[in-house]
Design goal:
The model has no long low-confidence stretch (mean pLDDT 89). Strands 2, 3, 4, 5, 6 and 7 form a 6-stranded mixed beta sheet that branches. Strands 1-8 form a two-stranded antiparallel ribbon. It has 4 helices and 8 strands; from the N terminus they run E-H-E-E-E-E-E-H-E-E-H-H. It is an alpha+beta fold and 179 residues long. The chain is elongated. It has 2 domains: 5-140, no CATH class; 142-179, no CATH class. The longest helix has 14 residues, at 165-178. The protein starts with a strand and ends with a helix. The protein binds zinc ion (ZN) (2 copies). One zinc ion is lined by residues 144, 146-147, 149, 156, 158.
Length: 179
């Protein structure tokens, strides 16, 4: 079992029961998102067996690092978030024949054996609370598009107002037209 797998055999066999799990890992692949774990990820979760479902709720505690989308400086973002999921056994999906397959998958997390891998649930819960674009600070001035200097550390000598001579001619023509 990897660190984010839970043995749910006991809870599955006893209706009305509940079980708590604590897991920690130092690894999480955020796929193509530009994030990496900055510290150990801890998950506390409780699963209860209610009727046809296993109801899972839990809390994730970690920190991730990414790069400022303007100046590329590394930024660490603390993550404390709750998650909840209803787990449905694969064979019971047929009980929901009135719903389209896609709808069932959207509503429930489908599992098919006594080992529940919660990696996807954890990854998605974290990505959901992270900003689309991270900034090192709200007023980050970014990098100079010409020389690449980090403008938070001071202005460079580039003249960013200089206009392409061909565009300057067009601007002049437009001016005369408008008169
Ligand atoms: Zn920045
Ligand atoms: Zn510059």
């Amino acid at each position: 079992m990897t660190t984010l797998e839970l043995d749910i055999s006991r809870i599955r066999s006893v209706k009305g029961s509940r079980e708590a799990f604590h897991r920690e890992t130092g690894e999480m692949d955020f796929w193509d998102a530009d994030w990496q774990l900055a510290k150990q990820l801890a998950v506390d979760t409780e699963i209860s067996h209610e009727g046809k479902f296993l109801n899972m709720k839990g809390h994730i505690s970690t920190a991730v690092k990414g790069n400022c989308s303007r100046c590329l400086k590394q930024v660490t973002v603390p993550v404390e978030c709750d998650f909840a999921e209803q787990l449905l056994y694969a064979k019971d999906v047929s009980l929901f024949s009135h719903l389209a397959v896609g709808e069932v998958e959207e509503k429930y997390f489908i599992y098919d054996n006594d080992t529940l891998d919660i990696t996807d649930i954890i990854r998605e819960s974290i990505l959901a609370v992270l900003p689309q674009k991270v900034l090192c600070r709200d007023d980050c001035r970014g990098l100079c598009p010409k020389c690449g200097k980090n403008l938070n550390q001071g202005q460079c000598d580039c003249d960013l107002h200089e206009v392409d001579p061909r565009l300057a001619i067009l601007a002049k023509l437009k001016e005369t037209e408008e008169v």
